[in-house]
Amino acid sequence: MLDFLTLPDFGLGWLDASGPYADIVLSTRVRLARNLQGHRFGSRMQDSEREQIFERVQQATEKSSMLKSGVRLDMASLTPLSRQILLERHLISRELSGDGRDGPPRGAGLILGIHESVGVMVNEEDHLRLQSLFSGLRLAEAYRAVDRLDEELGSELPYAYHHDFGYLTTCPTNVGTGLRASVLIHLPGLVLTKEIGRVLQGINQVGLTFRGLYGEGSEVVGNFFQISNQTTLGKSEDDLIEHLERIVQQVIQHELQARGVLMRDAPAVIEDKIWRAYGLLRYARSLSFEEVMNLLSGLRMGASMKLIPGLSVYTLNKIMIYAQAAHLEQAAGRPLSEAESDLHRASYVRRILATEGDVAPEGDE
Amino acid sequence: MLCDHCGENEAVIHLTQIENNQMSTFHLCESCAAAKGLEPAANVGNLPLTEFLAQMGKGMLPEVSVDAGGCAYCGMRLEEFKQSGRLGCPHCYVTFESQLKTLLRRLHGSTQHVGKVYLPPDPSEASRQERLAGLRRKLEKAVASEDFERAAQIRDQIRSMEAAR
User: Fold this and answer.
1) Which of A161, A180, A182, A204 to probe by mutation at the B interface, max B CB count within 10 Å?
2) What is the DSSP letter of B115?
3) Where residue A9 falls among pLDDT bands split at 50, 70, 90?
4) For chain B, how far is it from start to end, CA to CA, in angstroms?
5) Chain B residues touching residue A218 (CB < 8 angstroms)
6) N or C: which terminus of chain B carries fewer CB neighbours within 10 A?
7) Closest CA to A232 of A32, A14, A38
8) What is the ipTM metric for this complex?
């Protein structure tokens, strides 16, 4: 079989910055948690039962129009580096990657559409985690896609469903719709104006929650926040999606206002910050990932506010993915120490900015 | 302020609903709100469920004799669930129904699923009817909010179900 992981853009359609507000909202994800009737949940299953479930789900996906030509990846048969790459591409969760443990859970897998932005994680916390991933703010579209996949798989596989509680999940925080919709949003204006605390507090009060770059339990890096619904029971899928959409639209307006205030009150400071970030990324010889993310935040704001002409959001998105440790190791073809990784990262960023973002500020030279 | 529903007790829960851009506020006493399944979702914030369960203390998930045997299907005991925050199998939702309802009300502000109605691979007539009713509700809502793409998708689901009869 062709090793899909060597395809440079495998599973990265969501990166292309084609969606609405792509300069502010990196991606939209909608996932549905589903379990099979007649089986125990993940934490109480034997290995053989887990493998049986992976097998059944694979068979069902072969009959699905959205996944039949997709890629089927058994986590246990992948190298740790490949799993790390899938994690860095936001295609699998930390749990499925087996990161920080002995390895991935048995029977854990990913089935991913090649031409569709949908996939299924198998034997994560729940038997199935159906998901769709889109560029920009496209909640309704992302839900429609994953709902269509749910119809296809649900007509093949008997889901665990209860008249009152809806779709049954391992953790009661997901029961009902099993739906978690989230947007990965870049809010440097709100961070710089120190309004972010108030906004995040407001988000909590309206039944939403926020997380860091890699989802649950992860740190906020580069001013990226993942905003998602907190509750899954008692509201319909469409209502959950609409509510999140409405709040995210408001957050975007707050962010734009904050940027307006910054440019009105301190334009020189902001421009200096953005161009310093550009200068460091363009010429530095050693960069940690966190430093890259923080500097990219300045560049993304600059590109979004048209302060850096000719620098595309797509280029910035690519750097976010390809400057991560596993991607650098893959490109180098060998393991890298942390110090080596920082050198390779700086070299990669210099090269991509030289070819795709070689811009000069006005009045320069 | 007295409860809008019973008019007797002091209203302690003030529920603001926005539907079709119309805002309405209800003032309810604790027992009327609970009867409607409207107990406000606790501010769970970003706490992991196990910490949330621990914070709720012993009063939250009452020790009921059902725990003596645990879940008949997977053997999960209530005590284990409290520690891990994870249930053992779909049947646990039946075994621990009363305790879970209390928890779900706190977590989600509701104990009743109102989303998609699942149609299993070999559906009974009753589950077909339930599903059709659910789809028609969704269709009405999609049309009302002028989401015609969504409406078309739901209409196709209704048609394919009716054709399969």
Assistant:
1) A161
2) S
3) confident
4) 53
5) none
6) C
7) A32
8) 0.87
